């Protein structure tokens, strides 16, 4: 019977790993966002840069939206710095919004600050 118990434990471990990986992928990939292109302009309220990606909260018509910008290396590659993402600065975001009804979350492909484009995902059309 030890073999049966081991088999059950192994199955449980595999299923747990699968669900943990699929949950992480659902958010950190593009699967959680719509396929439609989306554009929004607002004023930066707060910034949190770092891994797994940065987040910029912007105010749009009195509502806060969270914008996922790139990972630190991706932001650095395009020249998007913390100073550019300073509070009270206007930003236009091109990307994809959350597919979850009512969630004010956008994954940025490209941002525009002071008329300059910062293309975080140059291989994606935005």
Automatic annotation (TrEMBL):
The keyword Signal applies. It comes from the Bacteria. InterPro entries: DUF6152. Residues 1-26 form the signal peptide. Keywords: Signal. This is DUF6152 family protein. It comes from Marinobacter azerbaijanicus. The lineage of its organism: Bacteria, Pseudomonadati, Pseudomonadota, Gammaproteobacteria, Pseudomonadales.
């Amino acid at each position: 019977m030890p073999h049966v118990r081991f088999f059950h434990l192994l199955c449980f471990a595999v299923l747990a790993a699968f669900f943990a990986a699929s949950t992480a992928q659902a958010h950190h990939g593009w699967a959680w966002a719509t396929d439609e292109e989306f554009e929004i302009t607002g004023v930066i309220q707060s910034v949190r840069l770092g891994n797994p990606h940065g987040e910029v909260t912007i105010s749009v018509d009195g509502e806060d939206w969270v914008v996922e910008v790139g990972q630190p290396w991706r932001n650095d590659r395009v020249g998007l710095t913390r100073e550019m993402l300073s509070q009270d600065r206007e930003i236009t975001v091109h990307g994809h919004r959350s597919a979850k009804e009512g969630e004010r979350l956008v994954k940025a492909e490209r941002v525009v600050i002071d008329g300059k484009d910062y293309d975080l995902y140059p291989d994606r059309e935005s």
